[in-house]
């Protein structure tokens, strides 16, 4: 999946909410995040680091190592 491309703003906000849920399920405190705010942060970081995957960008925002979630 790509953050930009054929995705709409509404889809990116929806994905932001899903990422919040996933990280919360993984034990991170995501109570202060809202879907639209996370999506906006993803937009900002993705503009800067297009070389990262959506998952890696989300981890960068939260300052967590994406490697710790690999099985």
Indicate the proportion of strand residues: under 5%
What do the pLDDT scores average to? 90
The rough form would be described as: globular
Structural class: mainly alpha
- Would you count the extended β strands for me? 0
| Count, helices | 3
Largest beta-sheet characterization: none
The radius of gyration over CA amounts to: 11 Å
* Straight-line distance between termini: 20 Å
Low-confidence stretches: none
Helix percentage = 55-70%
SSE succession: HHH
Description:
With 71 residues, this protein is mainly α. The chain has a domain at 33-66. 56% of the residues lie in helices and 0% in strands. The protein has helices at residues 9-25, 35-48, 54-62. The relative contact order is 0.16.
């Amino acid at each position: 999946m790509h953050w930009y491309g054929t995705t709409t703003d509404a889809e990116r906000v929806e994905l932001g909410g899903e990422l919040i849920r996933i990280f919360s399920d993984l034990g991170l405190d995501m109570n202060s995040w809202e879907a639209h705010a996370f999506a906006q942060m993803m937009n900002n970081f993705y503009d800067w680091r297009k070389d990262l995957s959506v998952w890696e960008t989300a981890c960068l925002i939260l300052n967590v190592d994406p490697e710790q979630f690999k099985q």
